[in-house]
Amino acid sequence: MTIQRWRITLWLATLAAIVYVMALAGGALMPVAVGALLAYTLAPLVDRVASVIPLHSPKHATVRRGLAVALVYLGFGAIILLVLLTLLPILADQVSKFIATLPAYFVTAHEQVDLLLREYRDRLSPETRQQVETAAGDIVSALAGALTGAARQSVSVVTGTLSVIFGYAAVPFLMFYMMRDRDGVLRGIIAAVPPPLRHDAANVLAMADSVLGRYIRGQLLLGLIVGTAVGVSLTLLGVPLSLGLGVWAGVTELIPIIGPWIGAIPGLLLVSGAAPEQIIAVALVYLVVQQLENNFLVPRIQGQATDLHPGMVLLLMVLAGAAFGFAGLIVALPATAILREMFWYADRRLGGAAPVEAFKPSRAWLNRHANADSAAIIEERD
What count of Cα atoms within 13 Å lies in the side-chain half-sphere of residue 225? Predict the structure, then answer.
């Protein structure tokens, strides 16, 4: 076996060991994933802030980026504090009003349930009612068993909750080091690649960085717009807990295709018990916001990031959901876009094109900053 093959074997073995350890860690890596996502989203802003800090010496690069991260932290901390000071009184007022009117909601819900039960008894035959009630009893028994099992595991749940809290408490520190040392990590990855493949490695990293960065920032922008639109609209309609429902709609917007429908369920359920006469208006709010998002926002914000046909998107959602569950729904679109660009780049390289020529068709995916980083890394290592 040649030295080059031994080196490839070493890389593959190391990668397999890392994947194995990550699989064992499981949910414990969720805080790390959240921190990496936020750090990746804020990285362009940190780069811009670092570029205006007057410490241009290479030996001061780490200090410059550390100061940039600190300034970004201060800026976002001030924004979050301002938002909390503005929204917390409104949210507290909504919660207090909701609690005060909760008994009336229960009465309304009880009346609606009684009406449904009367219609149920009038329209179904005794035999059918018996079958339905038997099935309902089985479901209740199953739920009771599940609750009993959950109660027995309460100690492990508390322990797991404490570990999760500790993990998320470390997220700001993880983000700081991720953003401060981003350039060094990227250069280290390129330096570890054999010299003949460094141009290819830099090109592949640039493609992945462009697609993934645009997709993540686009999804977060969509979530912010949709959450704000739903929260403001429900507040104007006087729906209880409208701010919380807006936040939920913004968070579920991060789930492609089915996210808006999931985001609408709590609002429709709440208004059906609290103010049934408003359910049509609330349903129209969710429908209008979803249509605006699908027809105007998504094509403009995410069209350049993935460039996937809507039919292909639906097919990917079905396949990814069936194969990988909820995580597959989240990563299917950006992963497909990245793999597509990598496939065509590899095809051009195998066809005899030089790295520069093979990279030209994918250059439209890249912003100028990503191009400059890739070029700087190649020139430095060459």
Answer: 15
